[in-house]
## 1
Amino acid sequence: MTGFTRRRFLAIAAAASAAAPARAAPLYQWRGTALGADASITLAHDQAESIVQGALSEITRLERIFSLHDHQSALMQLNSAGYLDNPPFELLECLTLCRSVHAATGGLFDPTIQPLWVTYAEHHAQGQHPDAASLAEARTRTGWDGLTFDNTGATLRPGMALSLNGVAQGYIADRVADLLRGQGLENVLVNTGEFQAIGGQPQGGAWPVTLDDGQALHRNAVMLENTALASSAPHGITFDQSGRVSHILNPLTGLPAPAHWRLISVTAPRAALADALSTAFCLMERDTIEASLRHFPRARLAHAG
């Protein structure tokens, strides 16, 4: 799984007509970033700018929990000290989901991969591939069984660290959508690197999201209405300049994802689940993907190619 801030290269664009019905508010779209990924919020409402500002405050609050670049974030405090007293509810909820996906994917989704990811990043920054001894040492500092958590605290085995970049963007999309639903909003598309759709387009019909694997746009858009979509591209970001060493790592072997998938996209009721599954599926064959999906009856493989 990835320790990177995430998939900047993916041009996943939500195409929505700006033509609104008579007397309806015009379509409004904010564009920016969330956890380092391109982000947008699209809606039609007379108070759209004010609504979006509230959503951006929520994104900022959640980034202070999940960021690997903010040394004061809850996640970085856990990684630095090896423990965190009274973790935020959002961190516990996300870790609980990670536990379920870890089990359903046979351990291929594992946020404790961060020390292994750092080993690859540091070696390739010096123009070297990590040797077997370095990888073996890094793997001793990974493993889901080295993490314990409940509402009183979270603890890591010494030397371990977490990355939630394989799930946090989807989680933030969910939480922003929850906030907007709670305000009575309908027909909103939230994109924080992964997508969560509240209803469909204001003028009618589902939100069409076009997938781009970095080489070609796919002819058929994924249609979203009251559902979420997440995508992972194993070789969209690589450690080496030749593009061969994927940023998605197999926690069971320590090896990069193979090259047989360019893009994996998953739909599910929650973007966090789709995000985690799409990450793990980069390491799987089709039959094991289908086996993992049976644990989540409402999740679907939208694209694998």
## 2
Amino acid sequence: LVTAKEGYIGKILRINLSKRKAITQELDRELLYTYLGGRGLGICLLYSELPPRVDPLDSKNILYFLTGPLTGTMTPFTSKYVVVTKSPLTGTYTRSLAGGHFGPELKFAGYDGVSIEGKAEKPTYLWIDNEKIEFKDASHLWGKTTRETDEIIIKELGDDSVRIVCIGQAGENKVRFACIMNDLFRAAGRGGTGAVMGSKNLKAVAVRGTMGVKIAYMKTFKKALLDAYKSITNHPGTASRKIYGTTESVASIGLFGGIPTRNFQ
């Protein structure tokens, strides 16, 4: 099994909303190294665990929140988590990434990821506090915006360091391009992942972790980080990216047809 010293925690949290059960499953080293990162692991799990021809909004669809081996470390650009599921927008595999604090917090709680299947009887949110897992009533949150949901859950749990992913009214109503939001402004915005959450009566997932991520070779790791930071700082595109973010790439991506305007024409 993979140990914490190698970046991976080696565990995934399995949630069944229909049965209100949560179990922790250990992950095999070969699986993690063959399908590297949350995106690779996610497509492997979805392909092997999801029955064929399942409707994306059926309770049998599986929703995965996954991280990578560098998530939760000081490595730049690695704070993202990935949502993997069968897309209600396309009817096939989708993966959507978002940055912010949720991914690292999931690692700090002791998990490389969470898989969610089934459907709750009523609106529910999950509370993951390290090894403590609770299914909480979210009836009072149904119809709330993602900002309102975030603020209410933090107040209820009494901890402003809690990190939350949640849906708004679009996800609740299964709009096929609905997003999953975290840290107020971060969006897993591709493929309608929010609609899958809504189809499961899952309003939010709140996480608090205190365990951290260990590094096997700290001196080597720090040197690699310094080299990376220097490379990023000296790159000619860094200054404009700080100002404009990924919108800086819109024009160039549009030139080779990478934006879905005019049906990718």
## 3
Amino acid sequence: MTMDYATHYDVGDRKRDGGINEDSVAVSVFEQGHREGIRGDDRDGPDGDETGDGPPESGSDPDNRSAAVFALADGAGGHDAGDAASYIATTAVCEHLAGTAVSAARSDPAGFDVAVDDPLPAPPRAGDLESAVAEAVVAAHREVLEYAADAGEQAHATVVAGVCVGGRCHYGWVGDSRAYVVNAARDEILPLTTDHAVVQRLREAGEIDDVEALVHPRGNEITRAVGGSGRADPETATVDVETATVPLYREDVLLVTSDGLLDAQTEAAKLYEWYVDAGRDDEMAAVVRDRAVTDGEIRDRVLSAPSLADAAERLVELANDRGGKDNCSTILLHDGTLPPTPDDPPARAAGAEPAVEERETRVQ
């Protein structure tokens, strides 16, 4: 299989006795092989010798390709049916997007050097696939609202979802669950999302610094979610889904996680108070970073793991080692047949300006 993935989820140490896991994850992979079959890192070299000691020379392998749909949702704590909301959200999103992913892959038979007489749809543009992701999340939002109305309960969840096809990830999110790219060639982790959360607003306004954001007392407050109380009309209700597209490379691992990985520290309020009382000095900042979960630690655990499954398990262990304050879920995906990371890759972090070649011409 060229598209490798792993998932892991845990209720969290603090909730292990009597708590429930309100997170939900879903992944659907479409794998297509032709002629010589699946050829990944262990394929034969140009002289017939097996080259299993490194990645392929080129990412344009005509004999196999993959498309994946993923969704992760975190039921909002404190509401009646967060677990139901997250389950509905992930299943509904993947149901809506699975056909989109297959159609996108099928629209390019030339990738297998095959002439097809029957007309196929043109390959979708990045904007089309982002719109499809947003529409899937809105559809999930309406299904959660319908459930809430029928059950007479509140049902909220955060969502990160996307389609990986053709060497790009087209994704969208609502709430404070996150997506990252971890790149081994550049030893870096790049956040692909920005939280729809109170702490993010405070940081953007310059009212708190990055250290405070790690342990802020309002770290559990989100400003956007799918679902609700059921009072909105499930047939017409909508939610603002933020979307983006980034290229993926052979050395990338796409990581999607609930906030239970980042907000694991059970002593966050105390650490925040100590940091502020110390005048936000460097020494106390180092203490906070050492006890909280940072992006750098996430990067290190992914890159040092021998497999995606091991990386997923290590991330959950990291959250529990720091307190296990909340449920923690992860999805990791990797495609070893993609082109290698260029020496000067385009900016991919959330909020970065897209490269010129990535911009689409639009009529205003």
## 4
Amino acid sequence: HQLRTPVAAIRAQAELALEDDAAHLPQRLDRLLRRTRSLGDLLDQMLSRALVIHRTDNAPPEPVDLRDIALLVVEQRDHELLAPGVEVELVIGEAPVIVRADEISLCEAVKNMLGNALRHGTAPVRIGVSRAGTSCEIWVEDAGQGPPPDMLERIGGRFERSAASRGNSAGLGLSIVRSVAEAFGGSLMMGTGPEGFRVTL
């Protein structure tokens, strides 16, 4: 059901491009390209969610240094495809920040956090690791104000299904982050501070 609507829209745009006169072709192709990209984003999110569900059900928690997760996500340089030219700053300290979790699931969660910041936030974007009391945190922050408060309450929870049906990867991506947090005894926090909008796992 989550894929039928965007696939039907792509088919309709392709059929219109074939039937329309040549003058409208560039506009039709532009719409077709945007729909295809949106569907690609949605498929990436759905595959990511399926991987996380499998890993959190089957992979036993092991000690993981959150600094390694942040470094790995930045070094994979996926952000260069999502937002060419946008630098991602890495903010990690010298001391290990160890949690018991699954490394692959954590990487998927942080990739989704970073992807949302790049797609919907404002540069510059930072990814960091820190401690807050007894909590270990990995976070992504952009310079924007974040979504409106009413949307903030829905993102990552029941918003997931309606987001996916509209091809909106933000709600689906943050639901992945929430799933990883809950699987390993953590939590997801979102809010605006002096440096911008921050999502924290």
